[in-house]
């Protein structure tokens, strides 16, 4: 499945300054692995030591938060758009 991934500015140093990347993946887990294959070093920024998405990053598939879908098992379909969004906190 060809999906488009929107990369936040702080991670674009791993993507050659690209804000969008097209990947072939059938789930979020496969997508993270595909990103690592084409952008070495990005997976360590996306996932913790157990391979789970870092708490301060949110993944959205077509504007739906994967935490309310199937988390990293969320299936991807051809043409889907995945957004990686850093969490914002403040006081």
The best one-word shape is globular
Largest sheet properties: 5 strands, mixed
Cα(first) to Cα(last) distance is: 41 Å
Q: How are the strands of the biggest sheet laid out side by side?
A: 2-1-5-3-4
- The count of β-strands is 5
In quaternary terms, these chains amount to single chain
Structural class given helices, strands, pairing?
alpha+beta
What radius of gyration results from the CA coordinates? 12 Å
Give the count of helical stretches: 2
What's the average pLDDT? 95
Question: Can you write the helix and strand succession as a string?
Answer: EEHHEEE
Q: Percent helix among the residues? A: 10-25%
Strand content: 25-35%
**Poorly predicted spans:** none
Pfam families: ThiS
InterPro entries: Beta-grasp_dom_sf, Mopterin_synth/thiamin_S_b, Sulfur_Carrier/Prot_Modifier, ThiS/MoaD-like
Organism: Phormidium yuhuli AB48
Protein name: MoaD/ThiS family protein
Account of the 3D structure:
InterPro entries: Beta-grasp_dom_sf, Mopterin_synth/thiamin_S_b, Sulfur_Carrier/Prot_Modifier, ThiS/MoaD-like. With 91 residues, this protein is an alpha+beta fold. 18% of the residues lie in helices and 25% in strands. It has two helices and five strands. Strands 2-1-5-3-4 form a five-stranded mixed beta sheet, with helices on one face. Strand 3 and strand 4 (64-65) form a beta hairpin. The chain is globular. It starts with a strand and ends in a 5-residue tail after the last strand. The mean pLDDT is 95.
């Amino acid at each position: 499945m060809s999906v488009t991934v929107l990369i936040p500015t702080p991670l674009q140093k791993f993507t050659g300054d690209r804000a969008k990347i097209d990947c072939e993946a059938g789930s979020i887990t496969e997508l993270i692995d595909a990103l690592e294959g084409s952008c070495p070093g990005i997976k360590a920024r996306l996932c913790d030591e157990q391979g789970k998405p870092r708490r301060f990053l949110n993944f959205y598939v077509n504007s739906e938060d994967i935490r309310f879908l199937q988390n990293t098992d969320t299936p991807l379909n051809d043409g889907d758009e995945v957004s990686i969004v850093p969490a914002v906190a403040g006081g």
